[in-house]
Please model this.
Amino acid sequence: MRIFAPKSSRNATDSSSGREKSQRTLFAHSGGILNLRGGVIPIDAWLRRVYGHLCETSTIAASFRTGPIKARKAPMLEVRPGKFVPNFGYRYLSEDVPFGLVATHALAEIADVKTPTIDEVITWTQSVLKTNYIAGGRLQGADTGDLRIPQNYGITTLSELIDWYSQRAATFGVSRLREPAIPR
Model:
């Protein structure tokens, strides 16, 4: 199979880090479609794409101030008149962390991509909710067993992940995986 790698990885040697090797593997197995080096969609571009028809998106602050996000209040509990504390049982922690950030960490772990900020949020949430997802820097905590992460289904490599998704995509008539278009 010929690999058309991005310019930044064309001269990579066998002594490359595991992350670079994982990125090249993902790029190769996807037929050149998936490219982690292409970067993440900038938040302002994402906000324009998602909320552009609903609110003013000239700046990130304007998007948050005028869009649907403005209605989201910080979940608090009144413990006595005028005294509030965070509601740690609210879905922002009890659902979004295990089913969002932990799942993101799971995919990053397979791709050998470090997620220090995500890990910091997960670790803090574990202390508040008395859960355990990350132990020793890896998803091997006692509470990962109930999560829908690839590792719980025996998927531990990029090749296995791509094969699994490709098989499911084929059942929907998708011949190969491809990245979403990024608005410019």
